[in-house]
Design a protein that fits this description.
The protein is of the alpha/beta class. It has eight helices and five strands; from the N terminus they run ααβαβαβαβαβαα. A five-stranded parallel β-sheet has the order 2-1-3-5-4, sandwiched between helices. Strand 4 (about 120), helix 6 (about 125-135) and strand 5 (about 140-145) form a beta-alpha-beta unit. Helix 6 runs parallel beside helix 7.
Length: about 190
């Protein structure tokens, strides 16, 4: 009997001697899978929005591919860059995409021409959150002329942290009604 009590005591002591995990440790353990984001910008080095966003993504553990290539002396072909990013997301090669042009409108128009791409032009955290909850957006579009880098980081964080259909009132509708309807429309359009 004494031996049993001693073994139980040792097991109990051993369990409490294990290190306690902080919230940061738990997040780090949960985020061991490599998440991939593709980014494209209509600008090379004008402003630092793209660099700021890439830095933030890397801080959060994302692998980032930048499709902003070409001769800095020449004007960039924003439709071509938007299409490259959209194709990669559409094929499932990247989880998410980020596009940057002057207002973000041109990039979002082009990106939405591809199946399974839900590009959202957002200028605040509210729109970022609801573009994920209601529309399952997978490409985030920014306007470099209208969104400061610091604000863009807050928008990006909100967008990345928000899950599709995560809403007590509208989540089920978005997941079970709206998204299937969008998929049916895509089938007709992208035959």
């Amino acid at each position: 009997m004494k031996r049993t009590i001693f073994v139980v005591f040792l097991l109990f002591a051993f369990c409490f001697a294990l290190p306690a995990y902080s919230e940061a440790d738990k997040k780090a353990k949960c985020n061991t899978e490599k998440k991939k984001v593709v980014i494209g910008s209509a600008f090379y080095e004008q402003g630092n929005l793209k660099k700021t966003l890439i830095g933030r993504l890397q801080e959060r553990g994302y692998e980032v591919k930048d499709f902003t290539e070409g001769d800095p002396a020449k004007k960039l072909d924003y439709p071509g860059i938007a299409d490259q990013v959209a194709v990669e997301v559409s094929k499932g090669n990247y989880d998410k995409g980020i596009l940057i042009c002057g207002t973000g409108m041109g990039m979002s128009i082009v990106a939405n021409k591809r199946p399974r791409v839900y590009a959202a032009l957002v200028e605040d955290q509210y729109a970022a959150r609801y573009s994920r909850i209601f529309n399952n957006s997978n490409v985030l579009c920014f306007g470099q002329f209208v969104t400061a880098p610091e604000k863009a980081v807050d928008i990006l964080d909100t967008w990345l942290d928000t899950k599709f259909a995560d809403h007590p009132k509208w989540g089920e509708y978005c997941r079970d009604v709206a998204l299937p309807q969008i998929a049916e429309i895509e089938k007709k359009v992208f035959k």
